[in-house]
Amino acid sequence: MQIIPIEPDQALVELLNRSALPTSDINQPGSIYFYGCHQRGKLIGCVGIQICETVAMLRSLATQEEVRKFGLGQALVKHAELNASLMGIEALYLLTTTAAEFFERLGYRHLCRQQAPAVIRETTQFSELCPSTSSFMRKLFIKGRPRDLT
Ligand SMILES: CC(C)(COP(=O)(O)OP(=O)(O)OC[C@H]1O[C@@H](n2cnc3c(N)ncnc32)[C@H](O)[C@@H]1OP(=O)(O)O)[C@@H](O)C(=O)NCCC(=O)NCCS
Fold first, then answer.
1. Which one of 77, 80, 96, 144 has the fewest CB atoms closer than 10 angstroms to its CB?
2. What is the rounded average pLDDT for all residues in the chain?
3. pTM of the model
4. Residue 47 near residue 79 (C-beta atoms within 8 A)
5. Which of 57, 102, 135, when mutated, tests ligand 1's pocket best, judged by the most ligand atoms within 8 Å of its CB?
């Protein structure tokens, strides 16, 4: 299954809506890279990385319900991590209300929101869109590679 760069179009909005994820900020110019996977022309999975100077937010991860638990979610995270590391990102941060355990298994560790760097706090996801009860998590990258046990 091929994962490719995608635009923040209607198909992406529909998938994020169905997955109860925010869409109001997906068209911010420049800083968000989206990737997706299609089956018979339909978008079945997506993920985004929002670059904030030397770190980034992993966001907008969703798979269509009928293809869940086949490994696509994990493949999308790995793809986002690879692209983040090629861009020289030092750490990936994320907020989630539903999938903390999923991300723990992929090497993300819980942080207090107070530990967020200023550039992450300034994102709309952090400051407005994700509830304050969301889990806040991070994976550090060392020498351009994800460090899985930090
Ligand atoms: C989270 C999500 C992307 C996972 O997609 P997926 O395609 O099912 O993921 P995978 O098939 O790669 O799952 C890998 C493993 O994680 C488990 N897993 C999947 N979703 C999980 C969740 N929400 N919590 C805990 N474990 C989860 C799977 O059961 C699977 O376990 P296994 O390897 O023992 O079978 C999907 O459930 C989704 O779109 N949820 C709604 C949106 C969301 O919550 N996004 C994350 C916040 S940005």
1. 144
2. 92
3. 0.94
4. yes
5. 102
Residue 80 phi/psi, 5-degree rounding, is: -65, -40
Sign of CA dihedral 97, 117, 83, 4: positive
Distance, CA 102 to ligand 1 centroid (Å)?
A: 6
Among protein residues, the one with the nearest Cα to ligand 1's atom 25 is 102
For residue 63, the ligand 1 atom closest to its alpha carbon is 39
In words, the CATH class of domain 3-146 is alpha beta
pLDDT-based confidence at residue 1 (cuts at 50, 70, 90):
confident
Residue ranges in the chain assigned as alpha helix (H): 10-18, 72-86, 100-105, 118-121, 124
Domain limits, the chain: 3-146
Q: List, for residues 43-56, the tens digit of each pLDDT value.
A: 999 999 999 999 99
Q: Which of 19, 23, 57, 68 to mutate to test the pocket of ligand 1 (most atoms within 8 A of CB)?
A: 68
- Measured in degrees and rounded to the nearest 5, phi and psi for residue 147 equal -100, 115
